């Protein structure tokens, strides 16, 4: 795990995907361990502005798969989260907490409709 310095490139990379942006914001605000399933539901509610009871399993599976295979491993490799793929558990690190103030400038403008990916 490396601790990447906060550069404009790092910020843009972290903010590139809507699922990743919502996961970062949620983990930084919650400051606790969360399961991939919990994060998936937060992402669904944020994007679709719909109760989770109305979520199709296909959409939730897409979100979980994207987190599991792409976003969480990437965040873990950069030292922003601790990620246990076997337990499907993710936890923010001090580094994510430290960069959140910088990220929040970009994430604050992320409306439910999202920034074009």
From TrEMBL:
| Cited InterPro entries | DUF7344 (IPR055768)
- Per the record, the domain of life is Archaea
Q: Which Pfam families match?
A: DUF7344 (PF24035)
Q: Which residues form the DUF7344 domain?
A: 13-91
- Name the chain's protein: DUF7344 domain-containing protein
UniProt source species: Halovivax ruber (strain DSM 18193 / JCM 13892 / XH-70)
């Amino acid at each position: 795990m490396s601790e990447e310095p906060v550069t404009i490139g790092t910020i843009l990379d972290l903010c590139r995907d809507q699922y990743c942006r919502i996961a970062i914001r949620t983990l930084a605000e919650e400051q606790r361990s969360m399961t991939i399933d919990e994060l998936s539901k937060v992402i669904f509610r944020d994007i679709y502005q719909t109760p989770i009871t109305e979520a199709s399993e296909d959409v939730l599976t897409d979100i979980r798969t994207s987190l599991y295979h792409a976003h969480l491993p990437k965040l873990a490799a950069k030292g922003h989260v601790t990620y246990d793929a076997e337990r499907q558990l993710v936890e923010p690190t001090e580094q994510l907490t430290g960069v959140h103030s910088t990220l929040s400038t970009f994430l604050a403008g992320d409306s439910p409709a999202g920034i074009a990916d």
